[in-house]
Design a protein that fits this description.
By secondary structure, the protein is α+β, with helices and mostly antiparallel strands. The chain has a domain of about 160 residues. The strands form two sheets. Strands 2-1-11-8-7-6 form a six-stranded antiparallel β-sheet, with no helix packed on it. A hairpin with a 2-residue loop joins β9 and β10. The longest helix is centred in the last third of the chain and has 37 residues. The radius of gyration is 33 Å and the shape is elongated. InterPro entries: Ice-binding_C.
Length: about 230
């Protein structure tokens, strides 16, 4: 009887032990870093990792990164769905329309993105990438966008889910703060340069004629004096 009880206890202990070892762990930052998101060949300025979905709620959940990045009030800019498509209408900042495009790679763990602003502005921009029940937030500090010029970048997911695997992309949320419009001096058109050169040539020609006329009068006066 004692032998049977001991055997039962051993089996129960083995089951409990295997169950504990199989229990899922929490998502982990693993190899993720600010290098994982770039824009115009520049990596993000900062990175933080938190369990949760930055896209939750009508205005997103900036609390997943705000304590790490600071920056005052963070405003929702855009929500991107699981296919890389924009959710709702394009966002705007201080009257500037912001166009974004995200393209997922074949592995669903990386891809490319672009951003274009209709006006020149500067702002702090955060990309909150959700995957595996966690969000990696990437900060671009004092990002400068020139009107009409598209900037391109890339992104990759390198953290792990509760099963220890790198998860596939789920969605992405963009936030901004400290935005300000920038005044950019207009670049002259080629025709403007042509007119400027023509004007300089005209002024130079007039100056040359006056100098020649002055020299001629001087020679004539000298000749009269000699006579």
């Amino acid at each position: 009887m004692k032998t049977l009880i001991a055997a039962i206890l051993m089996v129960a202990s083995s089951i409990a032990s295997s169950g504990a070892s199989a229990a899922p762990s929490a998502p982990s930052v693993a190899n993720a870093s600010r290098d994982d998101v770039t824009l115009s060949a520049h990596k993000a300025d900062n990175f933080t990792f938190a369990v949760g979905n930055a896209q939750a709620g009508p205005s997103g959940t900036s609390s997943l990164f705000s304590s790490a990045f600071g920056g005052g009030t963070w405003n929702l800019l855009n929500k991107i769905d699981s296919t890389g498509a924009l959710v709702g209408s394009p966002g705007s900042v201080l009257g500037s329309n912001i166009s974004v495009n995200f393209t997922l790679g074949s592995d669903s763990k990386s891809g490319t993105w672009t951003i274009t602003s209709s006006k020149s502005l500067q702002m702090d921009l955060v990309l909150g990438i959700h995957a595996g029940n966690a969000t990696g937030s990437f900060l671009f500090d004092n990002l400068v966008l020139t009107a009409g010029q598209t900037q391109s970048g890339s992104f990759a997911i390198n953290w792990t889910n509760n099963g220890g695997k790198v998860p596939g992309y789920s969605n992405l949320t963009m936030f901004y703060s400290n935005a300000a419009l920038r005044t950019v001096a207009p670049v002259p058109e080629p025709s403007t340069y042509a007119m400027l050169l023509a004007g300089l040539a005209l002024v130079g020609g007039m100056a040359w004629r006056r100098r020649r006329q002055g020299d001629a009068r001087a020679v004539s006066a000298a000749s009269l004096s000699a006579a």
